[in-house]
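Reopening this ticket.

The earlier resolution said the output was attached, but the attachment link was broken on my side. Pasting everything inline this time so it's all in one place.
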Amino acid sequence: MRALSFATICLSLLLACGGPPRGAEQSGPGARYAGRVTYDARHPTPRGASEAIEVRPARHVDVAILDRSGATLAEGRTDEDGRFELGAPPSAHTLRVFARVRVRGHDAAIARDPNGGETHALDTALDAAPTQDGQLAIHARDRDGEAGAFHVVDTLVRGLDAVKRWTDVTLPPVYAYWVRGGTREWSFYRGERPAGSGRYALELLGGDPGQASISDTDEHDEAIILHELGHFVMDRLTSDSSTGGTHPRGFRIDPGLAWEEGRATWFALAVLGAPLYQDTIGVEPWGRLRVDEEMESDEDPVAGYGSEMSVAKILWDLSDGEGAWPDALPDTDQDGIALGPAAILRAMMAHAREPGVFPSLPSFLRHLVRDAGLVEREALAAMLSRTNEPVDELLPDGPLPWPRPIALGAPVEDTIDGLSQPAPSGGRNIGLTGFDAVHSYLVTVEEPGMIVARLTIEGSGGPSDRTDVDMQLLDRDAESLAESSQTQPRESLAHLVQPGTYVLRVRDGGGRGNRARYRLEVLFETLGGPPIRP
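Inline output:
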């Protein structure tokens, strides 16, 4: 082998062991990498999400340095200003920033797949990374599709922090499935995913592929993100009274659905500290507002405990105003009550623990007055009157209007109507979730045994004369235990239960627009007792 000159050897060593990449400081055999992570954010405007971009720090997100094979060499997280510093050996090749936050006991992430297996991440080659003031400058741009993930996770943590302040409770891990061109119908709360994992999921609209500027995406709609997180919060801390399903504006809907949707909206706006609930479609100037609701306005097409906007606005009015608590909410209508969001959320938690309760707006208002002692009935009635809410409906002197108690062995008769326009109770009708299309009955049993429900329908019970009516038995968390969805004039269901409170729903069959008179009887067979006769 030919001998190399001394100069050639020196030049080779300099090329092979050159200085550290940009944004790094030499530290022994490796280097230390310091930098800042930021992302693009937009805000709502009357013409959709803002064209203007706000650059925000990616707060408390996980960062890692990888080698060429993808192996992790160092891990850390950014601070409140999005800054980080990591040390790594000479084999460092890539900086990876995850849309995931694990701080203050929280665990929140944004996933690329529905089951939460792959977290959104932004990769930057260290030898090509941009710098600013001698440090790495990592930026997630909205047009590249990753900025939305960082906006969503920051918003989730903002909500989780509020829950911690208000209740001193740290919630389980949660993730949001969001991708451009992914979910394209509705954003929603999915519950525990996978079942038994202890991790909970939201699903957020990603818009049409390649059409983010004109389609419905929710990554920059903070109120929508926090609304869906609100369902998770209520599910984990309180209870669930919802039927599920659609809840369009201008309809009186099932009171349990109105309660859950309205208080999720209240939670979102209490976290944001502003009484404006907005949902954008597209980006200005081509976009628009899908939802634009002002909590301090009393202009509503429908009101009362079947209106989700009544629920949201009443909870806002109970919370807003100056007081001796953090997170004071602005009060522009001078409604006269100021309990603060923390007191309201803690009262919801206490109300859900009451025996025999299936919460709704009237039951919660009664709890505030009678059980929690947080407000006088006269003051609450005055507030409701000033905001044009039906006082007698929301603060009844007698039994709560929903769900209606049904005694064992004592039949009741009524009419399901998901067909008539307008609906019998007012406003437009909707067969799937309408106020008149779903009836709920409270069933209480004091010993183990079998609930047997019998439904007799006037008509064919089928689609020919639009008299299809179904029924469903639920537990106190609105989990289905048994159901009957036949197309015949007589239906029944039976289910073994433990002592407690249950809800029996009678509803428009399939939500297709039916109207029928019915007779409902609930019987109970004790364990070891004589069987109920057919």
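Reporter confirms the inline version is readable. The chain has a mean pLDDT of 92. The two ends are 102 Å apart (CA to CA).
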